[in-house]
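Obj.: predict assembly geometry.
Materials: sequence records (below).
Method: joint structure prediction, all chains together.
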Amino acid sequence: GEDVEQSLFLSVREGDSSVINCTYTDSSSTYLYWYKQEPGAGLQLLTYIFSNMDMKQDQRLTVLLNKKDKHLSLRIADTQTGDSAIYFCAELTGGGNKLTFGTGTQLKVEL
Amino acid sequence: DTEVTQTPKHLVMGMTNKKSLKCEQHMGHRAMYWYKQKAKKPPELMFVYSYEKLSINESVPSRFSPECPNSSLLNLHLHALQPEDSALYLCASSQMLRGNEQFFGPGTRLTVL
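Observations (raw structure tokens):
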């Protein structure tokens, strides 16, 4: 089947904004999620958005959803070195039972 | 208690060994999941339990055998694994199926020799 696509790598300077993009596959997905994974660790749920919303803001995180283009983005304001990690988007598919993850974006924050 | 715990953190086993991975949550969640994650790849769903019953098996080989003894515990029994089964095995839980966010444990790093 189709992959949920993300760009592989993003490098930003500390204090700048980061924007991580995701193109998902299932137009009937009800929820879309962003997870963060640090090296050797499990996945940390950062935020999610319901499909009838265009935008959701949660402190430094802003999620934008374009349903027409099946495009999801995560903006991290004032990016810090502790934000360095792999970020996965995920869509709820299979009638709401399955979480399908994107290919992952490695975010590197430089001083 | 708002976390999912997994034991052991690391496991090395031979191809003839039998071992088990354990996962526990005390959030009252009724859906629990096993995922497999290879290096630099996204997690792939293996099994889903809902109300202690197997709900989804993603065509996983029978050398992986899940078990849900009660609503807080999820096990993954391993037997006759292959070296390509080496991966990070992640457990997750959610309040229920269908639209509830999943919370992940730290994973068990499995190496099959």
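Conclusions so far: The mean pLDDT of chain A is 92.
To do: check interface contacts against the pulldown list.
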